[in-house]
Design goal:
Elements lengths: L25 E2 L6 H13 L3 E8 L2 E7 L9 H10 L5 H4 L5 H9 L6 E4 L5 E7 L14 E4 L20 H12 L2 E10 L3 E5 L9 H5 E9 L1 H7 L6 H17 L2 E9 L5 E11 L2 H10 L4 E2 L2
């Protein structure tokens, strides 16, 4: 009885499954065992390539690659050169020998993340991190002008005023109103205890002694008619805008600023980073989680 002729599998670079303009247009020049193919794909991803694994023959798999817009265009020569440099005999130092589940667990259990959320279908992950280098909101275009004096900290906006020129806060307030045209002027107070906090008006409800020794007035926030016109802010909105600016600055001083990373599972079930943004003050970032994950997302951490 004649043997059934086996179909030859070409390992030449090709369009995925013969489909033109597929999002993974390149294929590796070799076939690999499944375990090796997955490990190679993980390593390729960690070095900026978008890779997936496709079964091409019995127990033999091929790695498909698409270009990453943040890297130089991939060529099969560069990818195969990268693969050939990996010593499979020394995977302990080169490629972690672990399953996809363990690979994903690093993301699902990232200790540096403040919060981790997962979409209802389990295909998307949203991580929240502290922003270690947030922008100073006082460097933005603001309606308010912050004049602050403090011996230990550089606070508020840069001005030519000095505390030595005034005999107390009342005198400074009169100067700002008369000479600077201050409108809607409000006192700023700082709480300095295991971190900094700032608000309009005195801090209340503090532990005994903290109000006297850890908090006190540091300046004023105000606006002018020229600023209101420049920013297009109606008089009825000024108070709320100034309060919002002080709250944002309070978040900045207290480290309440965050960024996020979004991961999605690829065809192999590996979580791949898709997006990241930083500079969210306060709880605004929670709205981004809902926008990316949709309704019904759950908290992992």
């Amino acid at each position: 009885m004649a043997k059934k002729k086996q179909k030859r599998i070409s390992t030449r670079p090709r369009h995925l499954d013969g489909i033109e303009n597929d999002e993974y247009p390149l294929a590796s020049n070799q076939l690999f065992p499944k375990k090796d193919a997955i490990l190679y794909a993980i390593m390729l991803r960690r070095n900026g390539y978008n890779a997936r694994v496709i079964k091409r023959a019995t127990n033999r798999f091929m790695i498909y690659i698409k270009n990453n817009p943040n890297k130089e265009p991939a060529t099969m020569k560069s990818v195969d050169t990268f693969i050939n440099k990996i010593n499979m005999e020394d995977t302990g130092n080169t490629i972690p020998t672990r399953s996809i589940e363990n690979e994903n667990s690093e993301i699902l259990n990232d200790k540096s993340a403040v919060d981790i959320y997962q979409s209802k279908d389990g295909k998307k992950i949203f991580q929240i991190f502290p922003d270690e280098d947030p922008r100073n909101p006082r460097e933005d275009d603001n309606l308010g002008i912050m004049v602050c004096f403090h011996r230990g900290y550089d606070l508020g906006d840069k001005t030519n005023l000095s505390s030595d020129s005034f005999d107390g806060w009342d005198e400074l307030q009169k100067y700002l109103v008369k000479e600077m045209g201050a409108k809607y002027i409000a006192p700023l107070y700082l709480y300095d205890h295991s971190g900094l906090r700032m608000k309009i008006g005195e801090f209340s409800g503090l532990p005994q002694g903290h109000k006297e020794f850890d908090s006190g007035q540091v300046g004023f926030i105000y606006t002018t008619n020229e600023k209101m016109k420049e920013m297009g802010t109606p008089a009825g909105r000024v108070k709320a805008v100034l309060e919002g600016e002080v709250k944002e600055y309070d978040d900045y001083l207290s480290g309440n600023v965050y960024g996020f990373k979004v991961f999605e599972k690829d065809a192999n079930g590996i979580l791949v980073e898709k997006d990241s943004t930083w500079g969210y003050f306060g709880d605004d970032i929670k709205n981004e989680a809902k926008a990316y994950l949709g309704e019904g997302y759950k908290t992992i951490k």
